[in-house]
Amino acid sequence: MKTNRKSESNFLVQGSILAIASIVSRMIGLIYRIPLTAIIGDVGNDYYGAAMEVYSILLLISSYSLPLAVSKLVSTRLAKGQRKNAYRVFKGALLFAAISGAIAGLIVYFGAGAITNLLKTPLSIFALQVLAPTLFVVAILGVIRGFFQGMGTMMPSAISQLIEQIVNAVVSIWTAYMLYGYGARIGAVLGVANHYGEAYGAAGGTIGTGAGALFALGFVLFVFIIYRPIYKRQMRRDVLSKEKESYGQVFQVLILTIIPVLLSTTIYNISSIIDQGIFKNIAHIQEYEEVAYSTMWGVFSGKYKTLINVPIALASALAASSVPSIATAFASDDMKLVKRKVHSSIRYIMVIAFPCAVGMAVLAGPIINLLYPASSEAGQEANQLAANLLIAGAVSILFYSLSTLSNAILQGINRMKTPVTNAVIALILHIGVLLLLMLAFDWNIYAVVIANTFFSLVMCIFNGLAIHKYIHYRQEVLKTFVIPAIASGLMGVAVYGVCYGLRLLTVSNAVATIISICVGVAVYGVFLLLLKGIDAEALKSFPGGGVLVKIARKLRLLK
């Protein structure tokens, strides 16, 4: 029992390391998008977002599933003491990554024109072609990250994520600024109404993505080179890999593991590019001006999604750490430990997702105006749209967090096909809702937000039913959902009162928003403890948990 508790604590600590890095990375991404948006504008954000959506889908197909697959296969072999076979999985995955990454890069580069025309965003071709080599780099990077995650350490992945985003931020802003001016001069020479400045600026932003990935790859390669002699010594003591897996077997097991993960993640994420195609084509049919629907999509992808993805990054990070951990417990046939890990991870993510969703809805306007100050009437209208979208879609933080995590749980217990089936059903229903809201009600970009929320809700329900079916697990409700919801509601009332009270006293929006967020964190923490929503042991698993427990005990909020 003590060993299980230690294992559970370690898996949450590793998840926390990756979660902190993911949140910091997302915050860096959020911060650099502010000057990037100021340079390229909402139309430029549309071009940038369109290229990144296509890139993300090809990235999913070529390499996103590799870290999960590699970490799962490596961890299960290490659990059996088979270090040689784990290393052969790693080498086979590297070869697979090189081939798939190269093919994906060629498809993106030569198919960029056809793809961007289909999405009614032809000028995003430059940004998309710039991203082509990055697919190869990220494929290799993903395998090395997956290898370390499979060994139970998230530190190389966490640090490389931070390096990737810092380099990305610096290079993106500089190259976007330089290329925006270059594009504007080309547009002036052509002498027609165009957005070449925005298009070239968006391409500059995507150069940063490639540069960040390249630096991150350099770091993990450096760590791997240092660690390799140690691992080779451990392999020499390996007597359990009696049957050495051939590379043919490795490729077979990799493909069998990757395909379900690939299908579920692709279907799970392809909704965004489908949304873009449906939205822009229907908006065009409904006689919206191109600039109007381009601006709406730019606000959606550049402001709304950038903000909404920050808290969801926690779920993605915890999911990444959950797969090898749950897979190891499942391979050992320790169902009690599997259930405890599932329980801990779901509680952990819900305790964080609830206040994020409420806070994002209550402070939507102040947060948008803080991050994207606008003086022009058009800029203020775009900010108001972004705030309205946040209010409408804040609840999706809960559903996306839980569905992302439940996908990983199902993959960890070897139910690889289940998330695929659930995602297909959810996607079909999602498309139906989007078409209905756009064609029958003309809800334009709001239809996209509501349809996305519906998609994540359906995934939550289906995945939850599947987890209950396969491991006979039912999540505890009071401390996981009810108490965090009540504490978040009380926090929302306090935050609203403080923020708008300070604004009435003519305090600046920036100061009022920052003070309100600090008050919200304190109020939520106090009510969560008073309502017994979390105990000392659970609190210790959070980042800085030891310090939080000491503070809570001094305030007599914990025994």
How are the SSEs placed, and which strands pair?
Blueprint: H1 2-79, H2 83-118, H3 125-150, H4 155-190, H5 196-236, H6 247-285, H7 290-331, H8 335-362, H9 364-371, H10 377-393, H11 396-412, H12 417-439, H13 444-471, H14 478-504, H15 509-530, H16 536-540, H17 545-554
From N to C, what is the helix and strand string? Answer: HHHHHHHHHHHHHHHHH
Percent of residues in helices comes to over 70%
User: How many whole angstroms does the radius of gyration measure?
Assistant: 24 Å
Number of strands: 0
Main sheet record: none
Query: What is the end-to-end distance?
Result: 23 Å
Report low-confidence residues grouped into runs of 5 or more: none
Overall pLDDT score: 85
Question: How would you sum up the global shape?
Answer: globular
Number of helices: 17
Tell me the domain tally: 1
- Name the assembly state: single chain
Question: What key attributes describe this structure?
Answer:
mainly alpha; single chain; globular; 559 residues
Structure description:
This protein is mainly α and 559 residues long. It has one domain. It is 86% helix and 0% strand. The chain is built from 17 helices and no strands. It is globular.
